[in-house]
Design brief:
The complex is a heterodimer of chains A (425) and B (173).
Chain A lengths: L6 H10 L8 E4 L3 E4 L3 H9 L11 E4 L9 H17 L3 E3 L8 H7 L8 E4 L13 E4 L2 H10 L2 E4 L2 E8 L8 H12 L7 E6 L1 H4 L3 H9 L8 E4 L3 H10 L17 E6 L6 E3 L7 E3 L10 E4 L1 H4 L2 H11 L7 E4 L4 H9 L2 H7 L3 E2 L20 E4 L15 E4 L2 H10 L17
Parallel strand pairs in A: 2-3, 2-5, 3-4, 5-6, 8-9, 8-11, 9-10, 14-15, 14-17, 15-16, 17-18
Antiparallel strand pairs in A: 1-7, 12-13
Chain B lengths: L5 E8 L6 H4 L2 H4 L5 H6 L9 H4 L5 E4 L11 H9 L3 E4 L4 H10 L2 E4 L1 H6 L5 E5 L4 E4 L2 E4 L5 H8 L3 H16 L1
Parallel strand pairs in B: 1-2, 2-3, 3-4
Antiparallel strand pairs in B: 1-5, 5-6, 6-7
The chains are: A alpha/beta (425), B alpha/beta (173).
């Protein structure tokens, strides 16, 4: 048996300043903290602890779940955060006039996440930032107030599941299809308390956007963190994001894993997670013809430019049969989509283009579901009531499958020779 | 919370993978509600009768992966405000478990006890001895690690952090 260490063991050893193994408890200081609308609640709790944050340069706040404010109580919450950011001199607050977007997009796109960094976020999808080689994990609001106050957090060093990925995705198949397959394989609690380590040539061939989709859904298997091995693509992305002063870290060759899975991307097919469990996996062709009322393309899972390109390629010159909501993950993504003519394509196809944010995914704003309605969505959760009424249903799928389904008004598979997913070669 | 305290109440039993969105729906998550308002929405999308049948000190009993999903702390707080004495499950989703510790709500993982318990019967949890006591017998559970117990005994993350900040100030003085 090897004596080497996993990514999680190595990064937490470095942060703790001592050699630790899975099961040990460390007290560590995060490089960045992320939060969103729930910052209003964090601010209130924080005020009961102390009056100054430990380091205003390490706190990143965006507004994304309820933007622009759809009701006075949301506007009041935003106002609390705005006031707090000013009082505390927070330099990374992305208000609606600050070119922001979904917090998990901003943390990557703006250079906060980088290899070897430790990120905590008051949101379960904080694990998305692991796509760039960081250890990123979600916590609750009170705990975030505590981190803001004292600059440290305790973490149990997790065991790791290694996912070694080979091969190439077939045309029309996306990283989303792969992660839905993995969720079906491992189950909704299958990576509980563990780190998911993605490695192998299949991951190397994926774009950073695809890797974000994978890590984003780590939490759907209850992973504590999910991470992809950093490479030249990571470096290039970070250069554009303006990240510097980081030191990459990766697992030893002889690391000890709880479990290792090997998956060939050639075996992956267009897929859905049927209502109302993420691990309710089915190949999309098995549910073809299922009627839908709404299609949603966006969220921290699939709201990036690569996802919009893939959807636009399907929708170009056609008309959607049901209401179709397009929500870019950030202002930068929206700008790129405008420059590339994708927004024109969506509008011409009859889609509703929304400002950057993530409201519909959590049933908070901007396209929620009514009683008995069915939505096919690129988001990450299909729990009962997740997108609105508790009598609504949600299918999760890739941007290509969602776009193809929007055209038909029922779940459909996209079949095209030239369509190559979002993979870049 | 005090580990010497015995928790006793009726058991309300639910299934596997009970998620945060049915415990506390997203439509309330980003509103600032009072404790009572938050409590009134507890388990709204899972068991609409919960609010009526639940009495202070009752114990929620769940299957595998209780609390899967969102980091939303209200999914713990609404139950605490409602007066839930503890949550007993076969296992807990990670962030949910952490939120329980941080909010001072006992979260006990004990699959054998869960299987033995019938919906509505009275059970108790003896934290000092590390046992769940049910009509069908007593079942031991694994106690928290020492570090975590310190957090729990302080009453959760907020009192714990207050103490930490106070000690830091004293060290500096």
């Amino acid at each position: 048996m090897g004596m080497g260490k996993t990514f999680a063991e190595k990064i937490l050893s470095r942060k703790a300043g001592r050699e630790v193994r899975a099961g040990d408890i460390v007290v560590v200081s995060p490089d960045y903290c992320i939060s969103h609308e729930n910052s209003a609640s964090i601010c209130t709790t924080f005020s009961s602890l102390t009056d100054r944050v430990w380091d205003p340069s390490k706190i990143v706040i965006t507004l994304d779940h309820t933007v622009p404010a759809p009701a006075p109580e949301y506007a009041n919450g935003h106002a609390v955060i705005r006031r707090f950011a000013k009082e505390q001199g927070l330099c990374h607050f992305y208000d609606l006039n600050c070119h922001g977007g979904i917090c998990h997009q901003i943390i990557c796109q703006e250079g906060y996440s980088a290899p070897g960094r430790l990120i905590v976020g008051a949101d379960s999808h904080t694990c998305t930032a692991g796509a760039l080689g960081a250890f990123a994990t979600g916590i609750g609001r009170s705990e975030m107030a505590s981190v803001w106050a004292c600059g440290e957090i305790w973490l149990k060093v997790p065991e790791t599941i290694r996912v070694y990925v080979t091969g190439r995705l077939k045309p029309g198949v996306c990283a989303k299809d792969f992660i839905l397959y993995l969720a079906g394989l491992l189950g909704a609690g299958g990576a509980g308390y563990k780190c998911l380590e993605f490695d192998g040539p299949g991951i190397g061939r994926m774009t950073v956007a695809d890797r974000m989709t994978l890590c984003n859904m780590g939490i759907e298997m209850d992973a504590k963190a999910a991470v992809c091995r950093p490479d030249e693509k990571t470096e290039k992305y970070l250069q554009e994001a303006g990240a510097s002063d980081y030191t990459a870290i990766w697992a030893d060759e002889d690391a000890v894993y709880k479990r290792t899975l090997e998956i060939d991307l050639a075996d992956i097919v267009p897929a859905v997670a049927k209502p109302s469990r993420v691990d309710n996996y089915a190949p999309a062709r098995e549910v073809q013809g299922e009627e839908i009322d709404q299609a949603f393309i966006g969220a921290c899972t699939n709201g990036r430019i690569e996802d919009l390109r893939a959807a636009a390629a399907v929708l170009a010159g056609r008309q959607v049969a049901v209401r179709t909501i397009i929500m870019p993950a950030s202002c930068k993504v929206l700008e790129q989509a405008l420059a590339e003519g994708l927004i024109q394509t969506f509008v011409a196809a009859g889609c509703t283009v929304m400002p950057p944010g993530c409201g519909p995914c959590v049933g908070a704003s901007g396209g929620v579901l009514g009683d008995g309605e069915c939505c096919i969505s690129t988001s990450n959760r299909n729990f009962v009531g997740r997108m609105g009424s508790r009598r609504s249903r949600v299918y999760l799928a890739s941007p290509i499958t969602v776009a193809a389904s929007a055209l038909e008004g029922e779940i459909s598979c996209w079949e095209s020779e030239e369509q190559n997913g979002t993979e870049d070669f | 919370m005090d580990r010497r305290e015995e928790i006793r109440g009726r058991a309300w039993k639910y299934g596997d993978d009970v998620n945060t969105d049915v415990i506390y729906p997203g439509r309330y998550t980003y509103k600032l509600l009072t404790d009572e308002e938050a409590a009134s929405h507890a388990l709204e999308d899972l068991d609409p009768d919960f609010g009526k049948k639940m009495r202070k000190g009752d114990i929620l009993v769940g299957g595998w992966n209780w609390g899967v999903g969102s980091a939303r702390e209200q999914a713990v707080k609404c139950l605490k405000f409602k007066g839930v004495g503890a949550i007993l499950a076969k296992s807990f989703a990670r962030i949910y478990f952490r939120n329980c510790l941080n909010e001072g709500l006992f979260a006990i993982a004990c699959p054998e006890a869960v299987d033995a318990i019938q919906d509505g019967e009275e059970i108790s949890i003896d934290f000092e001895k590390g046992r769940v006591v049910t009509p069908a017998g007593e079942f031991p559970f694994e106690k928290y690690p020492a570090y975590v117990m310190g957090l729990v005994e302080a009453g959760g993350i907020i009192p714990y952090t207050k103490e930490k900040l106070k000690n830091r100030r004293e060290e500096r003085a």
